[in-house]
Amino acid sequence: MALTAETESRLYRSLRAAAGASAHLVALGFSIGVAVLARPGSSLFSWHPLLMALAFSFLMTEALLIFSPETSVLRSFSRKVKVRAHWVLQLLALVCALLGLGIITYNKHLNGKAHFVTWHGLTGLLTMLYAGGQCAGGVLLLYPKLMKNWTLAKLKLYHATSGLVGYLLGCASLMLGMCSLWFTTSVTSVSWYLAMLCPLLTSLVIMNQVSNAYLYRKRSQH
Predict the structure, then answer these.
(1) Spatial separation of the C-alpha atoms in residues 94 and 90, rounded to whole Å
(2) pTM
(3) CATH 1.10.10.10 is right for the domain spanning 36-216
């Protein structure tokens, strides 16, 4: 028997809700797993993976899921509250990432190692620069009058699209970090593949959320 349009819509929303809930759990679980593995405080380096996992797996994922109509933890709150929470989470993510970058840079200096010579290091640096620019660009949404020739709707669309690129860069940096000697000597076999799936899953959920927001905007224009 063919599904009705209403049933298909309900099924689609249910699947989106399940995927969003999974993204919440995966983002938190991955960060906890990295914390257990790194044992923060055991060495200077140990803070680097923890801070980067918090920044790009947990805080940034939560900052973007804030706007999910199905799985936002602030679903019943106004958009103004969601925007403020988004800003706070993104700033916390940026602070954690900056601390993580500073720690690994200083740790390499102490050990006489070269900086930014691996794909992980180069991608991480690019991600940091991009994240800083993205946060600065977000100011334009708070003060849209600074961009007189741009409508607020366009600014929101470009900010969301640009934010998705930054998020994907962050996930790519995490995945490259999981190819490092430190990670591969501690996490092997099936566990390594499961860890790699974590940023992939959250990326798919976030991409779906952004694409749906874009399609909704296109429909509202017609």
Answers:
(1) 6
(2) 0.90
(3) no
CA separation, residue 167 to residues 30, 53, 92, 94, 164 (Å): 16, 12, 15, 12, 5
Q: Give the max Cα distance, the chain.
A: 68
In the chain, where are the structural domains located?
Answer: 36-216
- In 10 A of CB 174, how many CB atoms? 26
DSSP result, 106-149: HHHHHTTPPSS-SHHHHHHHHHHHHHHHHHHHHHHHHSGGGSTT
Q: What are the tens digits of pLDDT across the range 92-147?
A: 999 999 999 999 999 999 999 998 999 999 999 999 999 988 988 887 777 777 77
Give the mean pLDDT of 147-168. Answer: 83
Cα gap 205→117, rounded to integer Å: 31
Distances 102 to 87, 88, 98, 107, 217 between C-alpha atoms, Å: 22, 21, 6, 8, 40
